[in-house]
Amino acid sequence: MFIESPRYTERFGSVRLSHVQRVIALDSGLKSELPPYGAMGVIKIEEETIKHFEDRMAVVIPVKDEKLKLFEGVVSGVPHDCLVIVISNSQRGKVDRFRMEGDALSQLCRFTIRKALIAHQKDPAIAEAAAEAGCDELLGEDGLIRDGKSEAMVVGLLMAKAAGKEYVGFVDADNYFPGAVLEYVRNYAAGFSLAQSPYSMVRILWHYKPKISGGLYFRRWGRVSETTNKYLNDLISSKTGFETEVVRTGNAGEHAMSMKLAEILPYASGYAVEPQELVSIFENFGGILPTKNLKVMEQGIDVFQIETRNPHLHEEKGEEHLSNMLLLALSTIYHSPLCGEESKQAILAELIKQEVLKEGEEPPPVRLVSPLKKVSTDKFISHIREDFDKYNVLG
Ligand code: GDD
Question: Which CATH number fits the domain that encloses residue 364?
Answer without folding.
Answer: 3.90.550.10
